[in-house]
Amino acid sequence: MSKEKFMVDLDGNIKSEAEVAKIVRPRTETLEERFTRLHHDYDDGPKPAHYDNKNIVTMEKRAELKEKASRPKPFRNDDPSSYPSNQKKTMNTWELMMETAKNPKTKEDRIEAKEVRQTIYKDWNKPKMRKYLGEDELKLIGKHPSQRKPLEVKPIVKPVAAPIVKPVVPQIPLEEQIRIHVENRKQQQMQDLENRYGRGGLMTALKDII
Asked: At 6, is the pLDDT very low, low, confident or very high (cuts 50, 70, 90)?
């Protein structure tokens, strides 16, 4: 058998969780509504239509609630103020604010949601307090493990330059080099003689000697 849970509403009354779920969450009055209310309270002006509406919270009361509402302290044996029994109102008010922050519908809700996230961020930035944050709180600021994508490291592939292949110069044996040199010299001598004396006759005999 599940144990029934109880919560504290914005007026400080203890109600069951089922009763609180049926209650329409109060909204903050608009500037026009505040003006007409103050005009009625202090200048004997006409009573505004929203004056007795319990689903509309005055700006002063909303500011007071925001000032008092804070994230519950993490439990510590040596700190009685952190005991759940001493933080009932704070814990339940924080739960209501968390529900609004998850699904803000009005401008006032969005402002409150921002303040809730800022409060959670303060604890996130403190290493000693970070471990006390719940899953819903982590998800609200995008720090839950399921929301953090693993860092993808792409390997850096460097282009490999093709090796430069130098043409292989065939090694000519020394004897072959001498023979080529002698042959080139002989041809040059013969060319010189032809240029000087012309072909035939004496040149034919000299070619045989050379």
From this structure: low
